[in-house]
Specification:
Largest interface: A-B, 54 and 65 residues
Order of helices and strands of chain A: HEHEHHEH
Helix content of chain A: 25-40%
Strand order of the largest sheet of chain A: 2-1-3
Radius of gyration of chain A: 17 Å
Shape of chain B: globular
Oligomer: heterodimer
Number of helices of chain B: 5
CATH topology of chain B: Rossmann fold
Chain lengths: 129, 200
Amino acid sequence: MRTELTEHRHEWLDDEAGPVVRPYTLTGGRVRPSTDGFDLVAYVLAKPDPDLAAYPELYPEHRLLVELAGRGTPVVELAADLDLAVGVVRVLLGDLLSRGLVAVHQPPRATYLPDNNILKAVVDGLRAL
Amino acid sequence: MDSVRYNGDQRGHRVPIALKILIAGGFGAGKTTLVSALSEVRPLQTEEILTGAGIDTDDVSGVEAKSTTTVAMDFGRITINDDLQLYLFGTPGQDRFWFLWDELAFGALGAVVLADTRRLADCFPSIDYFEQRGIPFVVGVNCFDDSRRFSLEAVRRALDLDPEVPMVLCDARDRQSGKTVLISLVEHVARHRGEPVPTA
């Protein structure tokens, strides 16, 4: 997937061409998502059986995001899978969220960070690894 | 409490809790190595765009044509169970990436600061960062083959560490050793919150 995407977006770029330097072209220049709050580890879950054909304005990257989010995937893994910068993925996710195509589940915040049972489960889990 | 934590969607999907742990330290202290040793998947990499720090307004006209650069972030994953995952993030090494640290640190469970005894001062900025923000951390003293062995007490004095901050000798290449460091962090977090994890 990585190669395919790279090829169709930047046919003339190879590994030696250096980094892609206009990452926000894909978002039409938008650098902020329509909704705040896509934490790096927020889980994105696609709506079941989304009717993507109803949204011809969406890019192939949007469609890939919906596909990848079908099983519930954190923002940072979506970005790594698509080989796109996190900032770009956030904007694209904002587009999907505003169309109701995905739901976002924020991680617990520091103020209610894991209770003792969760910390104990983490320690037990690590010991068992 | 956060109502979405255990909620599934209509299909009954359970959304796990994802906890962030930062792996910090100076350049070459073994951050990426530790993330690799602990991650259940090959360490993943993503990028953040370096315009973020400078953009404070919504007027972004022209940004689409602006040349910029990106900074790579290494991360790894440890699945504890169906409901719980740890995400380990190696912090970018340079000061100009501090804005990224803020994002990484937001809501993080805690941090591991890797110290290299050959260049102890390199981890001072990381320690300052977490101390100032009240983020619980432990110091992992990475034992390199060619490094002189210092006593933990000597390192603690040199780092001027608070006595309650745990220090652990570790080998960042070794998964078991890395696990020990993470366990000491989570136990420290629990003590920090006044609810010590009972020892098994």
